[in-house]
Design goal:
The protein has helices spanning 17-33, 51-60, 77-93, 109-126, 147-164, 181-189, 207-222, 238-253, and strands at 5-11, 38-43, 65-70, 98-101, 135-141, 168-173, 195-200, 227-230. By secondary structure, it is of the alpha/beta class. The protein has a domain at 109-230: Rossmann fold. A four-stranded parallel β-sheet has the order 2-1-3-4, sandwiched between helices. Helix 4 (109-126) packs across helix 5 (147-164), helix 4 (109-126) runs antiparallel to helix 8 and helix 6 (181-189) runs parallel beside helix 7. The longest helix is centred in the middle third of the chain and has 18 residues, at 109-126.
Length: 340
C-alpha cells in the first residue's frame, strides 16, 4: 500500500459494560482478518473511547487514510447522520488524513447465516419433539424512526423464516416503532403454535436485549401451554466479523454503496415526507465519553438516554416519530414497569 491505512469501527455505545466489551471483541476479530491495516474503534456516546479518540490514535500512529465502518446492522439515524457528522467535523479539522466512510452491515447472506445459526443453536438446545413447522419465530429489531431500517428487519425475518422452514414468523421492535415486544408477543400467542423462538437481531447485549428477554418471560408466564425459547443475539459470530472486514475493504474497491433510494432524508417516504432535507447533524456531542460505568463526568440535562422509550431520541433538531402514539408502539409501555 502506498500509504498507511487504518480502520475504525464506529459504534453507538452502551451503559452496559458487557456490550462495550463485546464491541471491543469486534476490533480484535478484525485485526486477524485485516492484518495489513491498523484497527481501532470508538463510540458515539455512553462509552469510551469516543470516535474522535479512536481517530486521534490512528492519526498518531501515522495512518494517512482511515476507513470508517459503522458498527450498525442497518442504516438509520446513527449511520446516516450522527456518525457522518462526527467524521466530517474531524476531517475538516485534520486535513493531514483522509477519512472514507463505509456502509452498514445490512442485508447480507453472511449475516443471514449468522442469524440462522443462532436460532438453530437455540432450538437444538431446547430439544423436544416440536417440529420446525410447528414453531413460530419472532425476530426483534432495535426499532428506529427510519422506515427503511425497520423494513429491513422484516426482510431478515422472512429470509430466516423461509430458510429455516419454520411455521410462521413475526417481526417486533424493542423501541420507537411498532409493534413493540410485549404486544407483539401477545399477538403471536394467538396464532396457535406450540413453540415460539424469540431472536433479538442485535449485535451486542445491553439494556434493550435484557428487556427483550424480560418481556418474553412475562408473556411466557401468561401462556404456560406454549414453549418459549430464547435465541442468542449475533455477538462476534465469525460471519459477522467477516462482514465487518468486507465493509472496510469495499470502501477501497469502489463497491461501497449505501441504499439512498428509500432514505427518508432524500426521498418522500410515505408518512415521513416532512423529513426530506433535514440537516445532517449529530446530537451525541453532549454525551460523548460518558461510559457504561458512569465514571466520567455526570450527564444531567433533564432527560434519559436509555434509547428504549420511543421518543425518537429527539433533541430539538430531529423530527419526532410520526407514529409515537400507535397503540402497539411506545404508548403500550406507559403503564408498564421495567420487566428486568
Amino acid at each position: 500500500m502506498a500509504e498507511k491505512t487504518g480502520v475504525i469501527v464506529c459504534g453507538h455505545g452502551s451503559r452496559d459494560e458487557s456490550a462495550v466489551h463485546e464491541f471491543q471483541s469486534v476490533a480484535e476479530g478484525l485485526r486477524s482478518r485485516l492484518p495489513d491495516y491498523d484497527i481501532d474503534y470508538g463510540f458515539l456516546e455512553f462509552a469510551t473511547p469516543i470516535i474522535r479518540t479512536g481517530l486521534d490514535a490512528l492519526r498518531a500512529r501515522g495512518n494517512k487514510r482511515i476507513l470508517a465502518v459503522p458498527g450498525m446492522l442497518f442504516a438509520a439515524g446513527h449511520a446516516k447522520n450522527d456518525i457522518p457528522s462526527v467524521l466530517n467535523t474531524y476531517q475538516a479539522q485534520n486535513d493531514s488524513v483522509e477519512i472514507l466512510y463505509g456502509r452498514e452491515l445490512g442485508i447480507d447472506p453472511k449475516m443471514i447465516n449468522a442469524a440462522g445459526s443462532r436460532i438453530v443453536e437455540a432450538l437444538d438446545s431446547a430439544g423436544g419433539s416440536v417440529p420446525r413447522e410447528e414453531t413460530l419465530l419472532v425476530v426483534v429489531g432495535r426499532g428506529a424512526s427510519d422506515p427503511d431500517a425497520n423494513s429491513n428487519v422484516s426482510k431478515i425475518t422472512r429470509m430466516l423464516w423461509e430458510g429455516l422452514g419454520l411455521g410462521w414468523a413475526e417481526t417486533v421492535y424493542s423501541g420507537v416503532t411498532f409493534p413493540l415486544v410485549e404486544p407483539g408477543l401477545e399477538h403471536a400467542t394467538r396464532l396457535g403454535f406450540k413453540r415460539i423462538v424469540v431472536f433479538p437481531y442485535f449485535l451486542f447485549t445491553g439494556v434493550l436485549v435484557k428487556r427483550i428477554y424480560g418481556y418474553m418471560d412475562k408473556v411466557a408466564a401468561r401462556h404456560p401451554d406454549i414453549e418459549f425459547v430464547k435465541a442468542g443475539y449475533l455477538n462476534d459470530h465469525p460471519l459477522v466479523l467477516d462482514t465487518f472486514a468486507e465493509r472496510a475493504l469495499e470502501i477501497l474497491s469502489g463497491g461501497n454503496t449505501m441504499n439512498c433510494q428509500l432514505c427518508k432524508y432524500r426521498e418522500q417516504v410515505l408518512g415521513f415526507e416532512d423529513q426530506v432535507g433535514l440537516v445532517q447533524e449529530s446530537h451525541h456531542h453532549h454525551v460523548e465519553g460518558i461510559n457504561a460505568g458512569g465514571t466520567d463526568q455526570p450527564h444531567d440535562h433533564g432527560h434519559s438516554h436509555d434509547h428504549d422509550h420511543g421518543h425518537d431520541h429527539s433533541h430539538g433538531h430531529h423530527h419526532p416519530y410520526p407514529h409515537a402514539d400507535h397503540p402497539m408502539g411506545p404508548r403500550s409501555m406507559e403503564k408498564d414497569t421495567d420487566p428486568v
